[in-house]
Structures are given as C-alpha cells and as structure tokens.
Design a protein that fits this description.
The protein has 288 residues and is mostly helical. 55% of the residues lie in helices and 0% in strands.
Length: 288
C-alpha cells in the first residue's frame, strides 16, 4: 500500500514537471506508460504531442469524443473504439487516410451493436462514398435517416415504408409508387403525404373503409374514443362520417381547418392503432 502511494506521488511529480516544461518541449518517447496513462486521462490534449500513441493509450479516453482531434494518424482499431461509443466522432477523423472499403467496413462493424440511432445520420453526413450495403444497414437501424440520403433508391425507400409507413414524411419527393405503397400498408399515413395522386387517394380510402369495418367488427381496441362510439351504437354512422370527411378533403379539395383537424385526428389515431397491430393488415407476401 505504501509503495503504491509512493508510486502515485512519483507519477504526480513527473506530470507536474512535464506541465511546467510544456508539452511541446517534452520528449514523450522517453516517458513511461504509467505516467502517460495518468496524463492522458487528466488532459487528453497531450495526445497531440505524442508520436503514434498506442491503441491502448488512445482507448483511455474513447468516451471523450473531442479527444480524437488530438490523435495523429489514429489506427482503424482506435477509430472503431471511438465510433462504437459515439458516431459524432466522424467529424474529427481524417477519413481521407482510409480507402472507401476501409471506411465502409468500419461503419458496418460499428452499426452491429450501435444503439444511439440519432448518431447514424452522421454516417450519411461524413462518409463521402457509402456502399449500398451500408446505406441499407443505416435505414434498417434508423429508418428516418432516409431523409439525409441524397437521391435514395426506390428499394431503400420501400424498406423504410415497410418498416413504418409514416416515415414517408422523411422521404424527399417520394414517387407515386412509394406513396401508394405507404397507404396500402397503413391508410392513415396519407396525412404525411404532400399532394397524393388520385390512385393513392383511392387506395387510402379503400383501406380506411376496410380498416374501420374490421375495427368495429373485432372490437379489439383500447381507445376510449372508439369505446364511446360502439357503446352508443354509432359505428356505421362514424364510418360514413369519416368517409365523407375523407372525400371532402382529399377529393373535393375542401381545406377547411376544422374539417382537416377532425379528419387528421381520426387518421392519426387509426394509423397508430394499425401500427400496434390492433387490427392486422395483410402484407404483400401474404397473398403468395
């Protein structure tokens, strides 16, 4: 115990001496690892003055994203250690040092266990030539990142819509086919579609009517709003009113604010219920 205290005192004295002399005047190749470890954990900016710090030394501050700014020529292993903690570190990594294949592989490996979905969009922002497989993995992990992908393919858009039709709001200028696909899965998603075409409106209207019929037939829901409707025996009247609202807004172009609020509340609620599986919808594969 006494020896440990003495060693700690010696290390502290050496660190104070280094600080006194200045990092730029210190030959860090002559400094023992125990001293380097303590100094890096105390002040990671010292990494700027250490020539080729080991992966082990760099990993001491993996949880301090800005530390990457001070590491000269970090190895792939060091980059991965930082990336797996926080992908925002990409802005501090000189990616031009690596090949496209190396960068894509690093990102693919990072995504295997990555849980901070908001950080995934950093890949889209900082990786200049992402592979198609990497983009697919990004949208699978975090569908909303589709909005950050320039000119996403129809396949990527369809992957996102299949996961969550309401994410169509994150797709820039979706094609009519994508809009139709979204409302065919969940007609409530039409509230997120700008300028739906006639076929899209028709598909959503048919799906909405079928969903409402199934809803009241199965009586499988928890929302008090719909409990009140069924207790009052107003199921058919509600369905008819909803379809009138739908036609008035989407087909007749009535942009009355109160009408829109009523209709979008119903569509949002029904859309949420459908997403939770209150009433099952057929998937494309079910017909085969």
């Amino acid at each position: 115990m006494i020896n440990q205290i003495m060693e700690k005192d010696i290390i502290d004295i050496q660190i104070e001496e280094i600080k006194k002399n200045g990092y730029e005047n210190t030959d860090f190749s002559a400094i023992e690892n125990d001293v380097l470890r303590e100094l890096i954990m105390e002040d990671f900016t010292v990494l700027k003055f250490i020539e080729n710090p080991s992966d082990k030394l760099c990993s001491l501050v993996f949880h301090k994203t800005e530390a990457m700014k001070y590491i000269k020529n970090p190895s792939i292993e060091t980059c991965l250690t930082f990336m797996k903690y926080d992908l925002t570190v990409l802005k501090y990594i000189d990616l031009t040092r690596f090949t496209d294949e190396q960068i894509n592989n690093m990102c693919m490996e990072t995504l295997n266990g990555y849980t901070n979905i908001l950080g995934i969009k950093k890949i889209i922002k900082h990786v200049k030539n992402p592979s198609y497989e990497l983009l697919k993995k990004c949208v699978k992990k975090y569908p909303a990142c589709i909005g950050y992908i320039p000119n996403p393919s129809e396949e990527l858009c369809m992957m996102v819509i299949k996961e969550e039709p309401f994410y169509i709001s994150d797709i820039v200028d979706p094609t009519e086919e994508i809009k139709i696909y979204a409302v065919s899965i969940n007609p409530g998603s039409i509230v997120e579609i700008k300028n739906p075409g006639q076929e899209c409106i028709n598909v959503a209207r048919e799906g909405l009517y079928e969903f409402l019929q199934d809803l009241f037939r199965n009586k499988n829901y928890e929302e008090q709003y719909f409990e009140m409707i069924i207790c009052a025996g107003l199921q058919q009247e509600f369905i008819e009113k909803t379809m009138i609202l739908f036609n008035d807004y989407f087909i007749n172009g009535n942009d009355d604010l109160e009408l829109k609020d009523d209709l979008f509340y119903i569509l949002d609620t029904l859309g949420s219920m459908m997403n939770r599986g209150v009433v099952e919808r057929k998937d494309d594969d079910d017909d085969e």
